[in-house]
Amino acid sequence: MQDIIKNLPKQAKDKHNENKKFFAKLKKKPPKNLDYIMQDLHDEVFSDTDCLTCANCCKTTGPLFIDKDVSRLAKHFKLKPQQFIDQYLRIDEDNDYVLQQVPCVFLGADNYCSIYEVRPKACREFPHTDRKKFQQISNLTLKNVAICPAAFNVVEKMKDRIK
Ligand code: SF4
Ligand code: SF4
After folding, report:
1. Of all atoms in ligand 2, which is nearest to the CA of residue 122?
2. Co-location of 69 and 119 in the same domain
3. In this prediction, what percent of the chain has a pLDDT beyond 70?
4. Ligand 2 pocket test, candidate residues 66, 97, 107, 121, most atoms within 8 A of CB
5. Which letter, b or e, does each residue of 84-101 get, where b requires 16 or more Cβ atoms within 10 Å of its Cβ?
6. How far is the CA of 107 from the centre of ligand 2 (A)?
7. Closest Cα to atom 1, ligand 2: which residue?
């Protein structure tokens, strides 16, 4: 897995123009059953992906935290929301709460998430490949394929499946 992660930015860069064209076409005319196709491809790829040998999302990007995440996590740590924010978060250039640093402070050396049950919504949903109306997040996906081997594989399979 480490070799795959190491090569991923270059592979994603090599595919970038092709992917960009594909998503532009997809946005114009998404297939009627796109949600169904995406669920299928997502399940297929993730049944063959071991996130515990990867954790590249937790190591390199980290999630943004919505208010509900902050309240839930503050409660989990028996802190006030502002105390949780002061201890763990900062505001980024888009005015969102994000981690003060990556790798994520909640990631263990064994790649397990120490707050898995209460982790942020963005962590639960990453890389969003089973989300409805997938064509709407093509810009984000173009970035995620350089971080997430599963997202990369989903997009490669999409290009085969959707002509
Ligand atoms: S979601 Fe993607 S980047 Fe994150 S651990 Fe799984 S395969 Fe790796
Ligand atoms: S909270 Fe957990 S799942 Fe989310 S980035 Fe941190 S370690 Fe990964």
Report:
1. 4
2. yes
3. 100
4. 107
5. bbeebbeeeeeeebbbee
6. 6
7. 119
Domain count, the chain: 2
Alpha-carbon distance 39 to 58, whole Å? Answer: 23
Ligand 1: atom nearest CA of 56 is 3
Q: Given pLDDT bands bounded at 50, 70 and 90, which one contains residue 62? A: confident
CA 2 – CA 6 distance, rounded (Å): 6
Q: What 8-state DSSP symbol labels residue 133?
A: S
Task: Give the range of the structural domain holding residue 98, as residue numbers without chain letter.
Answer: 64-124
For ligand 2, the distance from its centroid to the CA atom of residue 116, given in whole angstroms, is 7
Q: What is the mean pLDDT of residues 68-89?
A: 98
Q: Name the pTM for this structure.
A: 0.94
3-state secondary structure of 18: helix
Give a yes or no: residue 142 inside a domain. yes
Q: What is the pLDDT of residue 163?
A: 83
